[in-house]
Amino acid sequence: MKVLIAGLGLIGGSLALALRDRGLAQEILGVERNEEHAAEALRLGLADRIVPFDEGVTEAGLIVLATPVDTIPLLAVKALNRVNARQVVMDVGSIKGELCEVISMHANRGRFVAAHPMWGTEYSGPQAARRGAFAGRSVVLCEPERSDDDALRCVEGIFRALEAPIVRMDPEEHDLHAAYVSHISHITSFALANTVLEKEREERHIFDLAGGGFESTVRLAKSSAATWVPIFLRNKFNVLDVLREHIHQLQLLRRMIERDDSEGLAEAIRRANTIQKIIR
Amino acid sequence: MKVLIAGLGLIGGSLALALRDRGLAQEILGVERNEEHAAEALRLGLADRIVPFDEGVTEAGLIVLATPVDTIPLLAVKALNRVNARQVVMDVGSIKGELCEVISMHANRGRFVAAHPMWGTEYSGPQAARRGAFAGRSVVLCEPERSDDDALRCVEGIFRALEAPIVRMDPEEHDLHAAYVSHISHITSFALANTVLEKEREERHIFDLAGGGFESTVRLAKSSAATWVPIFLRNKFNVLDVLREHIHQLQLLRRMIERDDSEGLAEAIRRANTIQKIIR
């Protein structure tokens, strides 16, 4: 199969490596506006050629949209405008509500499969692409019943080959849960990094004392603005909802510390501890 | 050297393993009130014998206090009351101000070395003890000038053998920076776990979607109340100070999202990104 990947960054690049490693792509065409990234993607073997989007859409059997989420709905429409009844278009973006709404009445809606693989790191750009990504991580498919059977089979086959368990969700449901579980973690981490940078003026101390758990909570704060600003703004209402709750939870802890309420604190911590039953 | 370790949990137990592996302890005596933990510590080889505190203090050349921080100052005084001029007492606790003040006028102050190795995990109890802990992580020594030369040499020798770089700090300075860098990470993580548990009623969704960075920010939420409630309360003013700033940073992000202020968000994220220059 000839595959076009628009956006050869963390997700698009890792998917390129995975498709090649599993023998699922004979040729990979890449779309990459940033010239440095384009050169790097070629050097890293993420794509065989860099092509203009329209040209790639005409050539490829599978078109993957892996650009920032604010650009995906329009690219989806442009791709669907050009595909024939055997080509498949999928995205790998973190937001699904707007996308699914935009393409809902498109004459070629059936050729589209909305996918969100729940894998990522704090790095971005072609050099962030990793072998073996996606394995063991869920991939969410939204409105699979609106995709043509063969298009859905193609995408499901890919994620099965990548050993990513498939989960089905409504787009609205997806965006809500993604805000609750994934997006809030990034906001917390950005805020924590800025808190420490604000309070701790001596970088040496951050470095010396960081062993106490700081790295893991602040890891996501290395994530790029280009990826995350569109996610926060396109998922605004869900993100604000969970952010309000998070600030509330911090205020609860703050009041308990102010009042030396050791029993209340212990109870809140024991409740937080129950998260270990859910995640490993 | 015969070593007494009071508290054979994550830190005390890992230190026991390290001392044995490096041949620094010929015999390890343990103090452990919890009977299950005592049995487990023996089974895991963290101690050769479990003894009452007073008895262990009389026997050991080095006495290590590795109990929750609210119990350390009193244990320090009790140990110093009993040691002779060749014995050394050290602690490995996360709070130093109160401890150093309590022992400041003790006739045997010189026998004490206040140490805080900047290593930990989210687990607790003897089964949390890890081989190779401490290596490459800083250890903070507080008021080393108030320790006798030989006592300081003994403790410095241990951490050098463990490959933990030694950093010196005032107790107040230590508590402030520990709040900024370590304690706030735990509060954030507890609050995040409770936020998600509050908003996300379907555990299945947390599990499916957790790939998006959630595990790393919430990892510390598995940490025990027995360890952390005393830390938050004993370091109350510093913890509240940094917690106020953290809530403020979250509110800034919230307002920018509310106003669709993409430039402000991008700037805040780029500022948070600078943390990667400081931590690896």
Overall description:
With 280 residues, chain A is of the alpha/beta class. The first copy, chain A, has two domains: 2-169, 3-Layer(aba) Sandwich (Rossmann fold), CATH 3.40.50; 174-278, 6-phosphogluconate dehydrogenase C-terminal like domain (6-phosphogluconate dehydrogenase C-terminal fold). The first copy, chain A, is built from 13 helices and eight strands. The first copy, chain A, has helices at residues 10-21, 35-43, 53-59, 72-82, 97-103, 149-161, 171-199, 203-209, 214-218, 225-234, 236-258, 262-273, 275-278, and strands at 2-6, 27-31, 49-50, 62-65, 88-91, 112-117, 139-142, 166-169. In chain A, helix 5 links the parallel strand 5 (88-91) and strand 6. In chain A, helix 7 (171-199) packs across helix 11. The mean pLDDT of chain A is 95. At the A-B interface, helix 7, helix 8, helix 9, helix 10 and helix 11 of A face helix 7, helix 8, helix 9, helix 10 and helix 11 of B.
Largest interface: A-B, 97 and 97 residues
Count the domains of chain A: 2
Report the strand count of chain A: 8
Cα gyration radius of chain A (Å): 21 Å
* First and last CA, distance of chain A: 37 Å
Number of helices of chain A: 13
Kindly identify the CATH topology of the largest domain in chain A: Rossmann fold
Secondary-structure element series of chain A: EHEHEHEHEHEEHEHHHHHHH
List keywords for this structure.
alpha/beta; homodimer; 2 domains; 8 strands
